[in-house]
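Module 6 notes. Inverse folding takes a fixed backbone as the condition and produces residue identities as the prediction. Think of it as a translation problem where the source language is geometry and the target language is the twenty amino acids. Below is one complete input and output pair. Work through it position by position during the lab.
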């Protein structure tokens, strides 16, 4: 056998080995991919089972929370529906775990630790605003209700919900005429921000009252002077209605603790 034939055989053998190695790699990758797909399917099945279990356990509580908000804010709920926005539960917190829900995918859930200050037999349900149809988030608006898990009745709400009620009341009833409170012309207010100073439950029981205290900061046109207002909003702990509001005189140095 001459040298050229020997070289040809060596090249063919080398190519065969390379092809064999590539084939083995492909097989291994295929098997790994199949295993990964199996794990994904198993994970999705687990997610589905967890989501179904949460829905079965807390469905009545979630509906009670939703009804509690809709019954008090029926006009706002109707206005949102006319914009294609719906109210949906997106967070559940019980004594043993919390769950982040995705209204766009009822089989998706993220399990987290329980809330430290929640009592046994109670559950917290948070609601959010979502576009009807694709259920994408419509805003960062959120309210949270405390529900008796045995009777499935709303027994209260959280400080964050009071803050939301107070802010909604400010935007709807105070902000449109705020320039009068500041003693400036209508187009002088060019920006504002809000800082919550305190949110407290003043009285408990069937006639409980919450107090939200917020400082509003205003930027005015053609001046370096910043104006502030402290707004106290009183909220009925049962009906969620704003019962009173107290607005300070304008001042020019923040009272918020940095």
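Target side of the pair, the amino acids:
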């Amino acid at each position: 056998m001459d040298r050229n034939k020997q070289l040809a055989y060596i090249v063919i053998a080398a190519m065969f080995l390379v092809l064999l190695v590539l084939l083995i790699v492909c097989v291994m990758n295929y098997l790994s991919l199949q295993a990964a797909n199996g794990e994904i399917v198993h994970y999705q099945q687990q997610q589905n089972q967890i989501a179904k279990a949460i829905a079965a356990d807390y469905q009545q509580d979630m509906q009670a929370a939703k009804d509690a908000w809709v019954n008090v804010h029926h006009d706002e709920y109707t206005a949102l529906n006319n914009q294609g926005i719906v109210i949906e539960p997106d967070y559940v917190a019980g004594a043993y775990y919390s769950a982040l829900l995705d209204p766009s995918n009822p089989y998706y859930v993220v399990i987290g630790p329980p809330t430290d200050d929640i009592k046994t037999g109670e559950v917290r349900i948070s609601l959010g605003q979502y576009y009807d149809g694709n259920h994408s988030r419509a805003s960062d608006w959120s309210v949270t209700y405390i529900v008796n898990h045995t009777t499935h009745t709303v027994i209260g709400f959280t400080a964050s919900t009071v803050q939301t009620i107070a802010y909604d009341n400010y935007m709807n009833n105070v902000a449109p005429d705020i320039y009068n409170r500041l003693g400036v012309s209508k187009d002088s207010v060019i920006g504002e921000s809000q800082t919550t100073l305190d949110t407290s439950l003043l009285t408990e029981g069937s006639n409980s009252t919450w107090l939200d205290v917020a400082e509003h900061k205003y930027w005015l046109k053609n001046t370096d002077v910043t104006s502030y207002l402290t707004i106290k909003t009183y909220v009925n702990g049962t009906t969620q209605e704003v019962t009173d509001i107290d607005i300070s005189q304008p001042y020019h140095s923040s009272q918020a603790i940095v």
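Reference fact for the lab report: Residues 3-72 form the longest helix (70 residues).
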